Amino acid sequence: MITLPRLPRLLHPRHAQVVAKAVLWAMTLATVGVLFYIIYFVLRRGLGHVGWDFLTEMPRRSGSVGGIFSTIVGTLYVTGVGVVVATPIGLGAAIYLAEYTREGRLTRIVRFGAESLAGVPSIIFGLFGFAFFVTYLRFGWSILSGGLTLAFMILPTIIRTSEEALRAVPQSYREVALSLGASKWQAIVRVVMPAAAPGILTGIILGVGRSVSETAAVIFTSGVSLKMPHSLFDSTRTMSVHFYTLTMESISEPKAYATAAVLVITILLINVAAYTLMNRFTRKFR
Amino acid sequence: MSGDSGTYALVKIAAKDVEIRYRGKVALKPATFDIRSSTIHSIIGPAGSGKTSFLRSLNLMSLELDGAAIKGSIKVDDDEILTIRGAEKMAKLRRRIGIVFATPQPLPRSIYENIAFGPRIAGTRKKADLDALVEESLRSAHMWDEVKDRLDLMGTSLSGGQQQRLCLARTLALKPDIVLLDEPCSALDPISTYKIEQSMQELKGNITFVLVTNNTKQAARVADRTAFFLMGELVEDGPTAKIFTRPNDQRTGDYIEGRFG
Ligand SMILES: Nc1ncnc2c1ncn2[C@@H]1O[C@H](COP(=O)(O)OP(=O)(O)O)[C@@H](O)[C@H]1O
Ligand SMILES: [Mg+2]
Fold first, then answer.
1. Using an 8 Å Cβ cutoff, are B54 and B31 in contact?
2. Minimal Cα distance from B175: which residue of A?
3. CATH class label, B11-103+178-256
4. Among B223, B218, B229, CA closest to B208
5. Apex CA B96: angle with CA A176 and CA A174, to 5°?
6. Atom of ligand 1 nearest to the CA of B53
7. Is A102 among the domain residues?
8. What is the pLDDT of residues A123-155, one digit of tens each?
9. Do residues B209 and B179 touch, judged by C-beta distance below 8 A?
């Protein structure tokens, strides 16, 4: 048996409690502080260069002149494809998990798979997307390749949040629907899903946020073209990738920070929306 | 209108040797009794006697949702229901046999939409038809005058008593010929309780009511016939007056006089 030397008691337990609380508070404050500092840092350097022109003009000379219009459009398209593909699949999986199976080996496997997918670094998704969509399926660097890659990336988030939202709907709603002559599927579609909608929407919005801010997975799959995309098979550059390129290739610091400012504000708005919905949802059922 | 207990009253529900188990554990020992057409048939007994299990077996909810295994035979209008399987047939059965739960369960939507839910699923689309159904059902549940000007109010924002009457109205909108009620007034104020009892008495000409109640006085007030369940056993069944004054079994009298339960 090894006995640890007892540390001399420095503090009365009651004082230790106070100290612990203070330390924890300081840590929380530091976290929030860092967040605010990042936002402040980016906005201070970038916001001054953001104007209507910046948002609506095409980038010229590699982005050192002009705006970021085509990258905004590119971001919308790539994110759009990702969400449009991931939502039905994710929702379907969530409905299956929450409504059609008992807890068992299968659900554990599916859930483990989804969790693992969530833990894969995004650059691996990028490589996978490049190998599979760009090369093997010959979609090339394109909105389609990028969007599909993002769909895989945000799938776990959408499955998890949707499943939780469905499970939070009181069992009695299902019973009532069945007792009124609804089939199980009608009960899900007409009663359970509407009740879970805010929670499901939260998951989708979080997915949008993740897609908008993603760089590594998209740069390998959608490429870096600054031209205005006209089809799903055109290459495009998202705002995140644009920021990355402007910085890494030292093209223009003001334009880089301006792009970052737009990105940060977009992400903030998306998170506020997700947070508000989530709040409304939890208040409704708890 | 034949709410009597005459010898020739038609049998609406014939339960024969109905045994209900949950994972092998018996919740109701084989029970045999008839529920007559156009009557209010109450089921009384202490908690855990198998009343809810029996009631939820009449529309197969115990089978589908609670994992119950049911043996024996339950015939409704001479048709066996225990062999019914499949979503479509179950849905049809539940439109015929409505249920009101112990705690009011309005869906999170308007009063109007709560009531229109069942008819819509059954295929009623026309606004005029739905309007008429909503009004008729609310009138039957003695609620129309209270809410006719605010049908778009959330059902969940009503008082408990109103919610339960909304649930009754919602069930009535299915045009059922049997309505099951599981301790519908256990959490209600006396006025709402009275209104629900009144509705049952007014409607029993066309609808057979099976009323599980934890309130023996309520059974005495409204039921034509009463069955007494005790610890998973049907102790006896008969005209309410007889059950309450001259029961065959000692235990029935003991329960009614509040000596246990
Ligand atoms: N879903 C269920 N799963 C397992 N056992 C149940 C279930 N529902 C009821 N029981 C059991 O069946 C017995 C009868 O319960 P119940 O029918 O609810 O009685 P009552 O309505 O008279 O209070 C009880 O012992 C109860 O624990
Ligand atoms: Mg009960």
1. yes
2. A180
3. alpha beta
4. B223
5. 15
6. 17
7. yes
8. 999 999 999 999 999 999 999 999 999 999 999
9. yes
* B87/A183 Cβ within 8 A: yes
- The pLDDT value given to residue B4: 46
Average pLDDT, chain B: 93
Q: For residue A276, what is the domain's CATH number?
A: 1.10.3720.10
Atom of ligand 1 nearest to the CA of B46: 22
Percent of chain A with pLDDT over 70: 95
Tell me if A12 is assigned to some domain. Answer: no
Backbone angles phi, psi at B200, to 5 degrees: -60, -45
> What is the least distance, in Å, from the CA of B117 to any CA of chain A?
8
DSSP letter for each residue of A42-64: HHHHHGGG--HHHHHSPEEGGGT
- Global pTM reads 0.85
Helix B87-96 and helix B111-122, axial crossing angle in degrees, nearest 10: 130
Q: Which residue has the tokens 């109205």?
A: B169
Indicate if the pLDDT at residue A250 is higher than 90. no
Its domain, for residue A72, covers 53-285
Distance CA B223, CA B40 (A): 5
Which of B18, B19, B20, B22 should be mutated for ligand 1, with most atoms under 8 A from CB?
A: B22
In which band, very low, low, confident or very high, does the pLDDT at B6 lie, cut at 50, 70 and 90? very low
Bridge partners, residue B36, by sequence: B11
Residue in B130, B132, B131, B187 with CA at minimum distance from that of residue B164: B187
Q: How far apart are CA A266 and CA A275, in angstroms?
A: 14
Q: How far apart are CA A152 and CA B127, in angstroms?
A: 44
- Beta bridge partners of residue A65, listed in sequence order: A60
DSSP state letters, B172-233: HTT--SEEEEESTTTT--HHHHHHHHHHHHHHTTT-EEEEE-S-HHHHHHH-SEEEEEETTE
Contacts 24+ apart (CB under 8 A), B158-161: B158/B106, B158/B111, B159/B189, B159/B192, B160/B104, B160/B187, B160/B188, B160/B189, B160/B192, B161/B188, B161/B189, B161/B191, B161/B192, B161/B193, B161/B195
Closest C-alpha residue for ligand 1 atom 21: B52
The one-letter amino acid at A54: F
| Separation of alpha carbons B45 and B232, rounded Å | 10
User: Which strands sit side by side in the sheet containing B11-22, from one edge to the other?
Assistant: B25-36, B11-22, B68-76, B79-80
Task: Give the ligand with the smallest distance to the CA of B43.
Answer: 1
User: Looking at the 3D structure of chain A, how many domains does it have?
Assistant: 1
Q: Which amino acid is at A169?
A: V
Does ipTM top 0.95? no
Q: What does the block give as tokens for A36?
A: 């605010």
Question: A9, exposed or middle or buried, with CB in 10 Å at 0-12, 13-18, 19+?
Answer: exposed
**Most distant CA pair in chain B, distance:** 56
Token pair of B205, please? 């000409």
